[in-house]
Write a structure and sequence with these properties.
Radius of gyration: 36 Å
Number of domains: 5
Number of helices: 27
Helix content: 25-40%
CATH architecture of the largest domain: 2-Layer Sandwich
Length: 926
C-alpha cells in the first residue's frame, strides 16, 4: 500500500501542541510526538519498537470498568455535539459482502458512505460490538491486544460537497481532549503514528493513537475510492474513527491483561473451574510487557518470540510455556465464549457454510481449548456466566439464553460424534501416506480435514502420531481457515437474456401496475420497443417479472385482432420486458394485456403463505430461525429456514397449526415503500429475511404483528384469502438448514386428499378399516421381523452345517488346512461370508476360498485364520488375482476379502487360480 505525503497528516493541532514528525528506525513508519527526544514510534509491535509501560502504571486519572469507559466515551462526544446511536447487530444482515460487523463504519456502508441514504445523525457517536475472526490465533498470547469480539467506539462525520461537518484537525483534537482531559492521560505521552487505511474499495490516511506502548485508537480519513492502482477522490469524505473500548479500559486499569480488566467475574470463574490458582502476577506483568512480540502473522514463529521473552524474564522456554499456555487458553476461552453468545443470540445457526461455518469454527476451537484445560464439560456453565455478565448491557442475550444453551448442546454432541468417526478417517489417510513413504500430513490436508470433516488439527495430530505419521500444526491455523471463509461470495447475478440490458438502457422505467393493484387482470398500454421479434417493452404493465423466488406472470397480449402468449417476463434495471410467443406488435401500438389469474392468484397465495410460515416457524422453533431461501410455485412452494436439528413431527404440526390460525384470523397484509433508514429504524433488520434488498427505498410487506419483511413480490390483501396451508414434506438440505415444502389454497386441499387416498389404499391392502390401520401395520411388521429372525436363524444353521462339511473335506498344505469349494444352489453373499468366517474362527490354521454364481454374477470369498496368516496367507491377494479370472476385481484385508466378475462360467478356473496363489504364498514347490 502506498504512503501518503506529510501534507495529508499535518494538521494545525500538531503545530499548536508542539508535535514534531519523526521516522521510526525499527518499523520504518512516521509518527508525531511532543517529545523531541523520542526515538521510536512508541508502539509495542512484533518488531519490538517499544514495550508496554502501562502495566501497574495506568496513565489515566482513575480506573474504569468497561461499562464506565463506554459511557465516558459516548457522553464525551454527546457533549461535543454528536448524537448517540444504538449499536447495530453483530451479524451484518444489511450487507451482502460481509457476514459480521467488523467495524463501526460497517453500520453505514455502503448506503450512507455512497450517498444513497442520509446517516441516522451527522455527526454521530456509537459503541459497536464487532467480530473479527482473522485474529483468532492471536487471542490469548497477546494478553488482550487481539480479541475476536470487542467494542469499537466510533465518532463519525459525513462531509458532503455542500455540507462540511468536521475533518482531520477536529478529529485529532476530539481524540486528544478525550484521552488527556476526560481521562487525564499526560499529553506529552500521546504519540500519533501515520498509516494508510484501505477496505471495501475505499482508502485514506489514518493516524493511530499510542500511549505507553498501547495503540488505543485509529482515526481514519476516508476520502478515496480505489480502482485498480488509482485513488479517486470521493464526493463524501468520511471521518471513520475506531476507539478500542476494551483497550482504553485495560489502559486505565494497568492490569496484567486486558482479560482481567474486561471479563472480571467471568475470567475468575474460568480460572476456578480449571483449578488455576496461585498465578505469579509479578512474573505475568513482566511477561505481558513483552507480549506484543507474540503477534502472529502469516509466517510468524512464536518459538523465537517465546525465546526472547524467556531471556528477558530469566526463565527457560519450557518453564515459560508451562506457565503461560494454560493462562492463554483461559483468556481465549473467555473471549471465544463471549463471541459465541453474541453470534448465537442473533440467530446464527452453526453449519458448514457462510456465517454458520465461522460460528462452528469458533465452537470447535473453544472446545479444543477447554479440552486442553480439562474442563470441556464446563462449556455450558461458562456460557451461562457470559450471558449473566453481558446481559446487563445487552438485554437481548438473556432473552435468548435457552436457545443459546440448546444450540450449543446439540453442536457439542455433533462434535463428539465427529471425533468418534474421525479416528478411522485419519487412520486411512495415514496408511495412504505411509504407502507413499510420506511421513507427515501436509498442511493442505489438515485444512481439508477441517473444512470437509470438521476435524481440528489437534485431533488429527493425536491419532496420526499413534500411527507414526507426524503432524506440524501451523501456529496461525485457525486464522488461515477463517480467512478462506470470512468474506461473503459475490451475490449471484440475475440472468437476463443476452444483450437485453444494453438494448433497453435508454428507456424510461416501466410503470409497475402489479404493485399499484395486484388484483388487476387487464390493462391497456403503449409499446415502447420491440426487440428481436421476441421482447416487448411497454410503458406500463401488470405482468409481474420473475424475481425474489417468485415466477413471472403468464397471460397474453392482444393487438390488431391478434393474440400472442406472454411466456416469460424479465426485469432489467427498472425496465420490464415481455417474452412473447407469436406475432409481436409495432412500436407505438396500443396493446391490451390479460393476466392468467389462476396462475397469479395461486402464486400470491403461496407468497403470502411463505411469510405466514416464517412467522409460525419463528414462534415454534425460536428467534434463531431466519429464511435461507425460498421458491414459490403454482401448486407447491418451498421455504428454507435456519435450524440446528431436524424438525420433529410435533414441531411440523405446530408450525402448520399456527400458520392456519393466522389464516383464520384474516390478518390484513399491508405494503408500503419506505426510505431504507426509516424502515430499518421502525422494523429492525428482520426486514432482510430474504437477503439484502438494494436501493434508497425498500418495499415492506407487513402482516399485522405476525411478520414483516422487505419483499418485492405480489401479495394478498389479507391472510384469510389463503384459505388453507398444508406442509407436505420437510428435509435437511444441508447442515443447519431445513426445507419446508408446502401448498396453499386448493393445492393444499389436494395435498390432504392425496394423503387420504394413500391411507385408503393402505387400508385396502391391509384389509383393515382406516381407524385400525396403525395397529394392523404394527402387528404385521412385528410378525415380519420375527419371520426374518427365524429365516436368519435357519440360514446361519445351514451355513454352519456347510462349513463343518467343507472343513472336514479340507486338504492340508504345509500345516494349513485349505478349503477350496464351489457353492451351488440358491445362496447369497452373506451365506458365503458366514461359512468362510465360521471356518476361519473354528480352525485358525485354515484358509477358505468359496466360489459361486449369484444373480448372474460370479463371486469369490476368501477368509484366513490367524495361524494361516502367520504362515504367509494373504486373503486380499488371493481374492484380487482369482477375481481377475472372472473379469472383475477384488479387495479386502489380509484375513478377509472378496471379489467377483461377469464371467460366470469361469468359477472353476478362478478356484484353481486361488489354489495356485495359496501354494505360492506358502512357498510350496509344484
Amino acid at each position: 500500500m502506498r504512503r501518503f505525503p506529510e501534507s495529508e497528516y499535518r494538521v494545525p493541532f500538531f503545530d499548536e501542541y508542539g508535535y514534531v514528525r519523526r521516522l521510526c528506525p525499527v518499523c520504518n513508519e512516521y509518527f508525531w510526538t511532543q517529545n523531541i527526544g523520542q526515538k521510536t514510534c512508541g508502539e509495542a509491535t512484533p518488531e519490538g519498537c517499544a514495550p508496554y509501560t502501562f502495566i501497574n502504571q495506568p496513565p489515566t486519572r482513575r480506573r474504569y470498568s468497561l461499562r464506565e469507559m463506554r459511557e465516558a466515551f459516548l457522553s464525551f462526544f454527546e457533549r461535543c455535539g454528536h448524537e448517540r446511536i444504538k449499536p447495530y447487530p453483530v451479524v451484518a444482515r444489511w450487507r451482502d459482502d460481509l457476514y459480521f460487523t467488523s467495524a463501526s463504519i460497517v453500520d453505514f456502508q455502503p448506503y450512507v458512505t455512497n450517498g444513497i441514504i442520509p446517516p441516522p445523525a451527522n455527526p454521530l457517536v456509537i459503541s459497536q460490538p464487532c467480530i473479527r475472526f482473522v485474529d483468532m490465533d492471536n487471542v490469548g498470547p497477546t494478553f488482550g491486544r487481539h480479541l475476536t469480539i470487542f467494542e469499537m467506539g466510533g465518532h463519525h462525520a459525513f462531509n458532503y460537497p455542500d455540507k462540511e461537518v468536521y475533518w482531520k484537525d477536529e478529529t485529532v483534537r476530539y481524540h486528544h481532549e478525550f484521552l488527556t482531559k476526560e481521562l487525564g492521560a499526560p499529553s506529552e505521552e500521546v504519540i500519533y503514528k501515520e498509516g494508510v487505511w484501505s477496505g471495501g474499495g475505499n482508502a485514506g490516511p489514518d493516524v493511530e493513537s499510542i500511549i505507553r506502548g498501547l495503540e488505543v485508537a485509529t482515526l481514519v480519513f476516508m476520502k478515496f475510492k480505489v480502482v485498480g492502482e488509482e485513488f479517486i477522490e470521493l464526493p463524501i469524505r468520511t471521518v471513520d474513527t475506531g476507539y478500542g473500548i476494551e483497550r482504553y479500559t485495560w489502559l486505565s486499569q494497568g492490569s496484567v491483561s486486558c482479560f482481567h480488566a474486561v471479563y472480571g467475574p467471568v475470567l475468575d470463574g474460568i480460572l476456578r473451574m480449571a483449578g488455576m490458582s496461585g498465578i505469579n502476577n509479578e512474573l505475568l506483568a513482566r511477561t505481558v510487557e513483552l507480549s506484543s512480540l507474540m503477534s502472529l502473522e502469516k509466517t510468524a514463529d512464536t518459538r523465537d518470540a517465546r525465546r526472547r521473552i524467556a531471556e528477558q524474564v530469566g526463565m527457560s522456554v519450557d518453564a515459560l510455556n508451562r506457565m503461560l499456555t494454560p493462562i492463554e487458553n483461559a483468556f481465549a476461552v473467555a473471549d471465544h465464549t463471549k463471541c459465541l453468545v453474541f453470534m448465537l443470540a442473533e440467530g446464527v445457526v452453526p453449519s458448514n457454510v457462510r456465517e454458520g461455518y465461522l460460528t462452528r469454527l469458533m465452537i470447535r476451537r473453544t472446545y479444543r481449548l477447554l479440552r486442553a484445560l480439562a474442563i470441556e464439560e464446563k462449556l455450558l456453565d461458562i456460557i451461562d456466566l457470559q450471558i449473566t455478565f453481558w446481559s446487563q448491557d445487552f438485554p437481548h442475550l438473556k432473552e435468548m439464553h435457552d436457545e443459546i444453551i440448546e444450540i450449543l448442546s446439540v453442536e457439542r454432541n455433533k462434535f463428539k460424534e465427529t471425533l468418534k468417526r474421525g479416528g478411522s478417517l485419519v487412520k486411512r489417510i495415514t496408511q495412504g501416506l505411509k504407502a507413499k513413504a510420506i511421513s507427515q500430513i501436509p498442511t493442505e490436508t489438515l485444512v481439508e480435514l477441517y473444512d470437509s470433516h470438521g476435524l481440528s488439527p489437534e485431533v488429527v495430530k493425536e491419532t496420526a502420531e499413534k500411527e507414526s505419521v507426524q503432524v506440524s500444526i501451523p501456529e496461525n491455523f485457525y486464522m488461515m481457515v477463517a480467512k478462506k471463509h470470512v468474506q461473503a461470495p459475490p451475490p449471484k447475478e440475475v440472468e437476463t437474456p443476452k444483450g437485453l440490458e444494453a438494448m433497453v438502457s435508454d428507456l424510461a422505467e416501466t410503470r409497475m401496475l402489479y404493485y399499484e393493484n395486484p388484483y388487476l387482470t387487464e390493462f391497456e398500454a403503449r409499446v415502447l420497443r420491440v426487440l428481436d421479434d421476441q421482447f416487448v417493452v411497454l410503458e406500463k404493465t401488470a405482468f409481474y417479472p420473475e424475481g425474489g423466488g417468485q415466477p413471472a406472470d403468464r397471460g397474453y397480449l392482444r393487438f390488431d385482432g391478434t393474440r400472442s402468449e406472454v411466456a416469460d417476463v424479465q426485469k432489467t434495471g427498472n425496465v420490464i420486458a415481455h417474452v412473447v410467443k407469436g406475432p409481436t406488435p409495432r412500436e407505438g401500438d396500443k396493446v391490451f394485456g390479460f393476466i392468467d389469474w389462476d396462475w397469479r392468484s395461486s402464486l400470491m397465495k403461496h407468497h403470502t403463505s411463505t411469510h405466514v410460515l416464517m412467522g409460525a416457524a419463528r414462534r415454534v422453533l425460536g428467534e434463531h430461525v431466519w429464511q435461507a431461501g425460498a421458491q414459490k410455485g403454482f401448486d407447491k412452494s418451498r421455504i428454507d429456514i435456519s435450524h440446528f436439528q431436524r424438525l420433529t413431527l410435533e414441531e411440523i404440526h405446530e408450525i402448520e397449526r399456527l400458520a392456519n390460525q393466522a389464516v383464520m384470523q384474516n390478518i390484513p397484509v399491508g405494503t408500503s415503500w419506505l426510505p431504507r433508514e426509516q424502515a430499518e429504524k421502525q422494523y429492525g433488520f428482520r426486514l432482510y429475511q430474504g437477503g439484502v434488498v438494494p436501493g434508497r427505498e425498500i418495499r415492506v410487506v407487513k402482516i399485522g404483528d405476525w411478520d414483516v419483511e422487505a419483499c418485492g413480490g405480489t401479495h394478498l390483501k389479507n391472510t384469510g384469502e389463503i384459505g388453507f396451508i398444508k406442509i407436505v414434506h420437510t428435509e435437511r438440505i444441508q447442515d443447519g438448514v431445513e426445507r419446508i415444502l408446502f401448498s396453499a389454497g386448493l393445492p393444499a386441499l389436494r395435498a390432504v386428499q392425496e394423503n387420504e387416498s394413500l391411507l385408503w389404499k393402505v387400508s385396502g391392502v391391509l384389509n383393515a378399516p382406516i381407524e385400525k390401520v396403525e395397529k394392523t401395520t404394527e402387528r404385521m411388521v412385528t410378525e415380519w421381523k420375527e419371520a426374518r429372525r427365524e429365516v436368519e436363524r435357519l440360514r446361519k444353521r445351514e451355513s454352519e452345517a456347510k462349513a463343518k462339511e467343507y472343513l472336514a473335506g479340507s486338504k492340508p498344505i504345509h500345516e494349513v488346512k485349505v478349503v477350496i469349494q464351489p457353492v451351488e444352489g440358491a445362496i447369497d453373499v452373506r451365506s458365503l461370508i458366514d461359512i468362510s468366517g465360521w471356518i476361519a474362527h473354528s480352525e485358525p490354521n485354515s484358509v477358505t476360498v468359496l466360489g459361486s454364481v449369484i444373480e448372474d454374477n460370479s463371486r469369490i470369498v476368501v477368509a484366513a485364520g490367524p495361524g494361516a496368516i502367520d504362515a504367509g496367507i494373504n486373503a486380499r491377494e488371493i481374492a484380487r488375482e482369482a477375481a481377475s479370472v472372472l473379469g472383475g476385481g477384488g479387495s479386502g484385508r489380509p484375513d478377509f476379502a472378496q471379489g467377483g466378475g461377469t464371467l460366470i462360467d469361469k468359477v472353476p478356473e478362478a478356484l484353481l487360480k486361488a489354489e495356485e496363489i495359496i501354494r505360492r504364498q506358502l512357498k510350496v514347490e509344484e
